[in-house]
Design brief:
The chain is mainly alpha-helical. Helix content is 80%, strand content 0%.
Amino acid sequence: MVSDRLVKIEKKLKLLYEQLDAVENDELLNQNPLARTQSRQQIREQIQPQIQKYEAEYMGILHQESAYLKFNETDAQAAIEVVAQEVTRIENNSSAYPDELLEQVREIRAKLEEPGTPAALKIKPVISLLPPGIGLAIEGELDTENFLRRNFPTFTRLVKGAKK
């Protein structure tokens, strides 16, 4: 069963993303250089660390609970396609990422390309391999903020469907 903590974290992340959007918009629209600098500092010092903390906790809980989740084959295939697209994007821009992340991406690619394995069985190892990449993001090596914004709906739908 999916933890209630995941739902709480999702709500907090949604609020933090709304704050981030508001401050980013303020930074873009403000003509005062001091105010723009303060906005960037607020993002860097307050908002992004909180987002990264909750993203890491979310992925950690998801990693722990993934062994107990039952995924629908169609939903699992959709999630795998999203992961495969991101893996391809990272591989195509390999010079922009650290070697450790690229090694993890290769491991994910190998899992995704296993012949004869149903998507529902592939998705659990992919979820298990993803948090180390997210861990690198906390160090600022990967822009997970946009990745998770784009892909959290997919994974959220997948996890919610799995808890049935």
